[in-house]
Write a structure and sequence with these properties.
Largest sheet: none
Membrane topology: Lipid-anchor; GPI-anchor
Number of helices: 15
Number of strands: 0
Shape: rod-shaped
Main location: membrane
Pfam family, one: Glypican
Family: Belongs to the glypican family.
Helix content: over 70%
Function: Cell surface proteoglycan.
């Protein structure tokens, strides 16, 4: 009553043993593919973590630098500006990690929150009435009167260009893991599990427990079993080329590090622009939002303080070098995995599974 290991000679197998063999080959096939995938997956997961750590390090550095701008040059509003600054960098981090948000909405939301502070603490430092209604009116007015000139738009453009490649790379790496996980658990067809039993376990039914499959026979069986997986070859090669393109984009003109480092300068220029145009802004705001309550006495507008370059470049350079090195290491490893799915059958037939350097092997029917 054997279905797979039928043979002319007497056999020590039963139908129940054949079923056990089918369960065994399914388990072994999954384990052998997992073992092959392990190094590749380990490298991708390791680099996702390393990239994220480097991103976070750069973001923290840029955030601290931006906060120090307010503490040194715009002290009257430093405390209140801390929250919008934090929100801006959280939004940037979420964008890089693939959240449904845009750089433009993050930057404009920041400037919406910044304008009431700049207006009431720097342009008109005598204002005492910062009611919710008045603050909201200032926020909405920002969109119409554009107090920060071209600087808010420039910041959107610069960040959008540089963060795009980082966001795409982050999503591409996650996609790579998803593909590998899917191929590990691809279901075996009935024909495939029967062919694997015939190749690996039918010799046992003849008492030939030490005989292993011939190399050519193993390759034929594995290629048949893995046809759907090896079809990924063209897409995998394209995926590696895309990773290479994205890592080059990140390192080239749309440099993430330079853009993040430039945030504090864009904000500083934007605030200076608003202060220089203070009288015109006040006249427009008074028409739209009404005149707020002023403190008694003659308070002059806060003086414009040019900001000196913050000298914390050592930390930044370390994060920058670390990110560049990780990019280079990663892409050179991934290029070596270009043929991963094309050569998967060959790799599974390598090693202990087949008989090498021996005059006898199993061809599916007999010992040859």
């Amino acid at each position: 009553d054997l279905q797979i290991c039928q043979h002319r000679a007497p056999t020590c197998c039963t139908k129940k043993m054949e079923e056990s063999y089918q369960a065994a080959v399914r388990r072994e096939r999954t384990q052998s593919i997992q073992a092959l995938n392990f190094e590749l997956k380990y490298m991708i997961v390791g680099h996702i973590t390393a990239f994220q750590e480097a991103f976070e390090s750069l973001l923290r550095f840029a955030e601290n630098r931006t906060s120090s701008l307010f503490e040194t040059a715009y002290r009257p509003m430093a405390k209140e500006a801390a929250e919008p600054v934090k929100e801006l960098f959280t939004d940037i981090s979420l964008y890089i990690l693939g959240a449904e948000t845009t750089v433009e909405s993050a930057v404009l939301r920041f400037f919406d929150s910044l304008f009431p502070l700049v207006y009431s603490r720097l342009i008109n430092p005598g204002i005492t009435d910062l009611s919710e209604d008045y603050t909201e009116c200032l926020r909405l007015t920002r969109q119409d009167i554009n107090p920060f000139g071209r600087y808010s738009k420039n910041m959107v453009t610069e960040l959008s260009k540089s963060l795009w490649a980082s966001r795409m790379l982050s999503q591409a790496l996650s996609l790579g893991i998803e593909v590998i996980n899917t191929t590990e658990h691809a279901a075996l067809t009935k024909e495939c599990s029967r062919a694997l039993v015939k190749m690996q376990y039918c010799p046992h039914c003849q008492g030939l427990t030490l005989i292993r499959p011939c190399v050519g026979y193993c390759l034929n069986v594995m290629r048949g079993c893995l046809a759907s997986v090896s079809e990924l070859d063209a897409q995998w090669r394209e995926f590696i080329s895309t990773l290479e393109y994205l890592t080059n984009e990140m390192a080239a003109s749309h440099d993430l590090e330079i853009a993040l480092l430039g945030i504090w300068n864009s904000i500083n220029e934007a605030i200076l622009h608003a202060q220089l145009n203070g009288p015109q802004l006040s006249a427009t705001v008074d028409k739209v939002c009404g005149q707020p309550k002023q403190q008694e006495g003659n308070l002059s507008s806060a003086s414009i303080v040019p900001v000196k370059e913050v000298t914390e470049t050592q930390t930044f350079m370390m994060a920058h070098t670390s990110l560049n090195n990780k990019r280079r290491e990663f892409i050179s490893y991934m290029k070596r995995s270009r043929t991963f799915y094309a050569s998967i059958a060959e790799r599974l037939c390598d090693g202990d599974l087949v008989m090498r350097d021996s005059s006898t092997c199993w061809n599916g029917e007999d010992v040859v």
